Predict the structure.
Amino acid sequence: MTFRPIAIFEYIGARFTTLLEELGGIFSTFLQSAGLLFVPPFRMRLFLKQMEFVGVESSFIVLLTGAFTGMVFALQTSYAFRLFGAENLIGPSVALSLARELGPVLTGLMVTGRVGSAMAAELGTMKVTEQIDALYTMSINPVQYLITPRVLSSIIMLPMLTILFDFIGIIGSYFMAVFLLGLNGNRFISDTIYMVDLKDIYIGLLKAAVFGAIIAVVGCYKGYFAEKGAEGVGKAATQAVVISSVSILIADYFLTALLF
Amino acid sequence: MQIDIKGLKKSFGTNSVLNGIDLTIEDGKTTVIVGQTGCGKSVLIKHIIGLLRPDAGQIIVNGADITKLKRKEFGGILKNFGVLFQNSALFDSMTVGENVAFPLREHTGLSPTKIMDVVREKLAIVGLKGVEQLYPAELSGGMKKRVGLARAIALDPQVLIFDEPTTGLDPVMSDTIDNLIMNTQKHLGVTSIVISHDIPGTFKIARWIAMLYKGKVVLYGSPDDFRNTQDPIVRQFLERRAEGPLQVEA
Amino acid sequence: MNKGISTNARVGIFVAVVLLLLFWITFKISSGTIFGRIQGYTLTAEFDNAQGLNTKTGVFIAGIKVGYVEDIKLADDKALVTLRIIPGVKIEDNAKAVIRTKGLLGEKYIEIVPGKQQAAALKPGEQIIFTESPPDLEELMNKLNGIASDVKSVTQSLNDVFGGSKGEKNMRGMFDNLNRTITHMDRLITSTNKNLNRTFDSVNTFAQALKEQGPDILTNLAQISGELHAIIAENKQSVNRTMENINQASERLDKTLANLEVITGNLKEGKGAIGKLLSDKKTEQQVTKAISGLSSMVGGTSRFRTIISYRGEYQFAYHNVKSYLDLRLQPTWDKYYLLGIVDDPGGYSSTSTTYTTVKNVNTGTVQQTETVNNNISNQLKINAEIAKRISYFTFRGGVIESSGGIGVDINAPNDKAQLSVEMFNFNEKPYPELKAMLSISILRYFLLSGGMTDIANRDVRTWFMGVGLKFDDQDLKSIFGLAASTTYVNTK
Ligand SMILES: Nc1ncnc2c1ncn2[C@@H]1O[C@H](COP(=O)(O)OP(=O)(O)OP(=O)(O)O)[C@@H](O)[C@H]1O
Ligand SMILES: [Mg+2]
C-alpha cells in the first residue's frame, strides 16, 4: 500500500459528504414529521403514550440527577464564594445556572440516554422486522404514525422535565446551603428570587424544547433508517445518543449566544 | 384486478436480482410464485406493493403504471391489498387483538365492539382462539404467521399477497390455510399472489404457477403445465433433487 | 402496563404538577406581577448619584425585597428614580431611600430605611424625600481618614492613661507591688513545700481523678482552696496591700474606661464612619439579631463584657515573676479586644553609664563619679490584640508584648480550661518567641497556669507556673464594695 496524500482529503471529503447527508436526512425528517402534524388523522392516543414515555417515565431520573446537581453545585460554589464572603451568591448562581444551562442541557442529556436511544432501537427493530413496511402496506404514513408523535411529545415534555429539574435542583441546593452549610434559608430564597429573572427560566425552557426536538428527530431518523438486523439496530441506538448529545451541546452554545 | 408486470429489472449493487420479469397476474385467480430461495420472489412482490422501485420495467394495475406513482399516491391502491410478510411483521408493541384490529381501526369507522367481533372472526378463520391479549413475542412462529394472515384479511381486500403463508406450519394447518385461500378466491373472487415452497399445496391452490430462475420467469402455466413439463430445471425443482442443473448458490 | 392508572391520567397528573410548579415559580420570581401585569404602586426618589442602578434593581426593606426600580430619569441634575412597590407594603413619609452595594464589589440595590411608625404612609406616586447616594471614592477616602483619626484619638487617650512619665511611674509602682505580692506568695509556697507538692500532685492526678474518682476531685479542690485560704489568711497584710494596689489600678482603669466611654459615646452618636455603622439602626438590629441568635447557643454570655485580669508567671529558670495586666473588651461572645501591659523583669537588659558630678565643698574640686547601671530596660510591654472566636478556637493577633504576634486559644467545652499557643517578637531572637500555656480557672476568680515560654530558643526558654485573678465588670462592682478576698474566703 502506497501512501497517497490525496487519500486524506478523499477521506475527509467522504466523511463531510456523509455528515451533510446525515444532517439533510435529519432535517428533512424533522420537516416531514412537523408537517404531518397538521394533516389528519390526529392520533391522540399515540401522543399521550409518547408523553408518558418521554415525560412521566423520565421524571424519576430527572428528579434524581436534578437534586444531586443542585446539591453538588451549591457545595462547589460555596467554596469559592466563601473566600469572598459572598455566600449570598450561592443560591442565585445555582438557580441561574440551572435555569439557563444545567437544567435544559442535563435534562436533554439524560433524556437522550433514556429516550433517544429507545426510540432509535424501537424504530430500528420495526424497520428490520418489516413492521414499518407493514404499516406502509396498510396505507399508513409511517412518519406520521411513528415519528410525529415522538417529536411533538418530546418538544412538549422536555421543557416540563426541565422545570422539574430546575425546581428539584434549587431545592437540593437549598437543602445543601441551609442544612449543611448553615446559610439562612429566607435569605437564600430572597437572594435567589432577586437575581433570577423569568426570562432566564423561559429561555431555558425554550432551549429544552429545541433539545427535545433534536432528541426525538435524531433517534427516529437513526432508527427509521437502521440497517442489517440486530447489529444495525444497536448501532442506530448508539449513534442516536452520540449525535443527539453532541447536537444538544452545539445547539446550546448557539442558543445561548442567540437568546441571552 | 389484473396486474401486468413487464420487463421488471432490479439489482442491489452488483447483485442483479430481477432480470426482466414478464408476468401477468390474472384477476380473481390465485397465482403461486415458486423458485429457489434467494431468487427474488419477495423482492418481486415488494415491487408490486411499491416498497421497492424497479431499475427498469413497468407494473400496470388498472391500466396505470404504479412504478411511476409517488409513495403517497400508492395509498389508494394499497387499501385494496392485504399483505402477509414472510416473517409476519406483527407490531410487537401491540397485542394480537390490536394487531388484527389495527387496519380496522385505521380505515373503518366501526365501533370498538364491532371491531372486536371482526377480530375474533378473522382469528377463528386461521384457527386461533383466545390469544387476543397475548403479545407477538409470546407466540410460536406458526401462530405469528396466522395472526399475520388474519391481519392481512381483516379488511377483506381484493388482492391478497401472501409471502410463504404455510412455511413453518404443520401439514394439517397448512391445508387449512390452503383451503382459506381457495375459499376466499372462490366465494369473494379475490386475486391472490402466493409465494410458496410447498409443492403439493401449490398444486392444490394455484390457478397459475410462475417459476423464477436467475431473475427471469422460466415457466408460467397451469399446474398441469408444470406436471407435464420436460424443462430439467423445473423438473429438478418439483422433484426436490439436489443433483441437476439447479445449483445451490455458494 | 397501566398499573391501575391509565396513560391519560398519568400524563395528566404529570402535566398538571409541572404547570403548577411553573406557575408558582413564575409567580415567586415576578413577585407581585402576575403574568407580566404589573401590580403594586409607584413611589419616586431623587438621588444625587444613581450610578449602578438599573431598571429591575431590587428595593429592599430589612433585607426583604419589596419592589424594584421601574424607571430612571434625569431631573435637574439629579436622578429621579421610580420605584415599584408591591401592594401592602407601607413606606412612611420620613423613610429614607439609600443606595447600597451588595458585598464589596457587588451590585447596587436600594434599601428603604423605615421612618417612624406613627408617620403617615406615602401614597402612590409620592416622593421619598430623604435619600442617600452611594459615596464616591473621594468621600470614602474622607471617611477612612475619619476612621484613622478616631483610632488616633483612642490611642491618644490610652497614651494619656498609660503613657507619660507619671503614668508609667504609677503603673510601675503597681507592678512592683504586685510583684512583691507574688514574691511573697512564692516564698510562702516554697516554705510550705509540703502543701505545694500536695497541691500540684492533686493537679497532676486531676485527669486521672476525673476518670476514676469523681467525688475525690471535690475533696482535692477543697484542699486547694483550703490551702489558698491558709496562704492568704497568713499573709493577710500583703493581700490587703495587693487589693489596695488593685484599687489604685482600677482607678486608673476607670479613667481609661471613661476615655473609652467618650469614644463609645462618639460611636453611639454616630460620629465617624464606624460610628455611623454602629448607630445605623439596621446594623444594630442585625447585630442584635445575630447576637440573640447566638446567645441561645452560648447562654447569657452575649452581653458586652469588660474583663480585667492579672496574671503572675513564675519563671523557673530565672526565679522571677512576669506580670500581666489585661483589659478585655468583649462586645460579643465571639470577639474581643485586649489591651494589656506586661511587666517583664527579664526584659532586655542594657547597660547605661551615669556620670555624676559632685562638687566637693571642702576641696572645691569637681569630682565625677561614674556609675554603671545594668539597666533592665523595656520592662513594660504592651499587648493590644483583636480576637475572634470560632467554636472552641479563639484566634487573636496584634501587638503581643510590644511586638507583632499571633495566637490561638483552644477552650475546653465549659471554658474552664484553655490551651494557648502564641508567637511573637519575630525579629530579635534567632526564632520567634513561642509560648504554650495551659490555664485552668478555679473558684471563679482565680487562674492557674503553666507552660513554657520562648520554646524555640533553647538557651532562654523556661517553664513557668502562674497564678492569676480575673474579674469582669459585674464582679468588679461587687468586689470593690467589699473587703474582697478575705470576705470571700471567710464565707467559704
Ligand atoms: N433490501 C435489499 N437490499 C439488498 N439486497 C436485497 C434486499 N432485499 C433482497 N435482497 C437480495 O435479493 C435477493 C432475493 O431476495 P428475496 O428475499 O427476494 O429472496 P426470496 O426469493 O424471497 O427467498 P426466500 O424463498 O428464501 O424467501 C437476495 O440475494 C437478497 O440478498
Ligand atoms: Mg422471500
Observations:
- Chains B and C do not touch (no CB pair under 8 Å).
- Strands of chain B lie at 3-12, 15-25, 30-35, 56-61, 64-65, 81-84, 159-163, 191-195, 208-213, 216-221.
- The mean pLDDT of chain B is 87.
